[in-house]
Amino acid sequence: MFVACRPLAVAWAIAGAVLCACSPAVTAKSSANAGTAATIGGDAKTGAQIFAKNCSACHGATGVEGGTIGPSLRDEKTRMDYNGTVSWIEDPEPPMPKLYPQSLTQAQVRDVAAYVQSL
């Protein structure tokens, strides 16, 4: 009986390992700010203020009108999800300047990403 059950036990062990590997860690902590947009990891209201100081010169006052160098960011959420927006801000392609981590913190990047996703 033990020999016949062994392949089944191995299959269940593998299935359990796969399910555990695919589920989120319960103890993982996020370094995101818990702002009004905490479900996506940043605070869009705070992000608007950071955007005005750091991004508006190129993308326009609110980001939807576009600027002389940077394009409009209206409906950016249709081209890139929140995590993609965070990645882009952290590691942009020229001519966009790299502001992270010298000028913007991780929390500020997430706030700006939340703002951009709200446009």
Q: Which characteristics define this entry?
A:
mainly alpha, Cytochrome Bc1 Complex, Chain D, domain 2, 49% helix, 0% strand
Number of helices: 5
Oligomer: single chain
CATH architecture designation of the domain at 44-118: Orthogonal Bundle
Number of strands: 0
CATH topology of the domain at 44-118: Cytochrome Bc1 Complex, Chain D, domain 2
CATH class of the domain at 44-118: Mainly Alpha
What's the CATH superfamily of the domain at 44-118, by name?
A: Cytochrome c-like domain
Question: What's the rounded overall pLDDT mean?
Answer: 77
Judged by helices, strands and strand pairing, the structural class is mainly alpha
Beta percentage is under 5%
List the helices and strands and how they pair.
Blueprint: H1 2-22, H2 44-54, H3 56-59, H4 82-90, H5 106-118
